[in-house]
Amino acid sequence: MKRFTALLSILLFAGLLAACGSASGSSEEKEQVVIGYFPNINHVPSMIAKEKGYYEEQLGDNIEIVYKTFSGGSDFMTALKTGEVDAGLVGPGPAMNNYTTGTDVKIIGAGSTGGTVILAREGSGIETVEDIDGKTFITPHVGCTHDVQFETSMKELGITSERINGTMVHTTGKPATYQSMFESGKVDVAVAPEPWAAVLAQETGAKVIISTDDVAFGNTLPASVLVSSGELIENDPELVQKIVNAHKDATAFINENPEEAKEIAIKDIKEITDQELSKEVIDQAWENIGFTYKVDAEAIQAFGDSSYALDFLKEKPDFTNLIDTQFIQ
């Protein structure tokens, strides 16, 4: 009995030590910061930051950086609202649209400019912009940045989508699938972010109908913006500043080392989409993109006004408090 009692005491003591060890281990778990982005050229700063470890450098060894990718802005914004991501790059359209419905989102920097190209499928019969009337066009999502740019350009010609009693038929899909959609003849026009515009031009013979320079807001509107939540800014501005600093480091790297940046983009896009883009495609796409962390507030407001005019927004927006520039000074 004494031997049993002694053995029981030893087992209980060992269990207590194990429990203490487990508690100690859990207390040392790293805090996670989740960064979101899309697998397209407008989001290369996040790819560079991931490859070069800029977030890790800024945030230190006690923070674990997790990267999460998205195919569209609505999914990204849902993740931001639910706390699945802390910050990241998204099109200005989804950020604006969600802000107007009460989402706690702040634009804390820009990612890139340009990169939206309108192309017609070979055999679609489309030779000019006017020929798009009555045709089917595809964008990543309804009301996304590229959609608003395209529909703004078309409205200036008096051509609108069925959504607002027009003739153009609208469908949506991941940009990586645009090539198969063209090849099957399911759509006539692609509103494509780079590098998928370059893919369509080189792989399918698609014709550029509206270039990046000519599409609405083409070279003034940020094609991607760095966002976070107002709550995170209020609770941990130092963390947000470090996130922005890492983003600025990545932007500087792109502008100083474009060829290496292209190689990193090709690798990252392949890992995410399982589609390997040629150097020629990336070179062509790169010509339509500019990389900057500075935000053009006037362009964002003008874009929001156009979104309202196209009935993507129910009320005319005021984006004065959407943009927080304190971290990019």
TrEMBL record:
Which PROSITE patterns does its entry note?
PROKAR_LIPOPROTEIN
Q: Which Pfam families match?
A: NMT1_2
Quote the subcellular location field of this record.
Cell inner membrane; Periplasm
Kindly report the protein's main subcellular placement as a broad class.
Answer: membrane
What InterPro entries does this protein map onto?
ABC_SsuA_sub-bd (IPR010067), NrtA/CpmA_ABC-bd_dom (IPR044527)
The protein's UniProt keywords, in alphabetical order, are: Cell inner membrane, Cell membrane, Membrane, Signal, Transport
Q: Which SUPFAM superfamilies match?
A: Periplasmic binding protein-like II
Q: Which residues form the signal peptide?
A: 1-18
Q: Record's superkingdom? A: Bacteria
Stored Gene3D superfamilies: Periplasmic binding protein-like II
Family membership noted in the UniProt record: Belongs to the bacterial solute-binding protein SsuA/TauA family.
Please identify the protein, giving its name as recorded.
Answer: ABC transporter substrate-binding protein
* Species this chain originates from: Gracilibacillus marinus
Task: Provide the organism lineage as a comma list.
Answer: Bacteria, Bacillati, Bacillota, Bacilli, Bacillales
